[in-house]
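I am still getting used to backbone structure tokens and would like to learn alongside you. Would you supply a protein for us yourself, any chain you care to pick? Start from the sequence, derive the backbone structure tokens from it, and show both lines together. Go ahead whenever you are ready, and we will take it from there.
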Amino acid sequence: MPDARGVGAKGAAALLRKHATLEDALTDGRFAFQADELRLCRRIAAMDATAPLPSLDDQTPTWGQAAALARTWELNRLAERLGELAGAGASGS
């Protein structure tokens, strides 16, 4: 999901001190060139079920890669479950 272009962690903190919400920053004229994109990202991040999502091609899950990623994020229980799915796929189950 894209960030506001040209805004790093320090800039984001300063914006939050000045504007209480993303909508306040947009109303003040910030990020006019990507306002719609930022609003959509906010809706997706808030898990708004009515947010329009782009269509994705069907893909076969790569459970082993997902398990490895979960381990790097220290989500060990999730990594275990994904690893089990990887093992089940390898055995044809």
Notes: The helical segments are 9-18, 22-27, 35-45, 63-72, 76-90. The chain has a mean pLDDT of 87. Residues 11 and 17 are 10 Å apart (CA to CA).
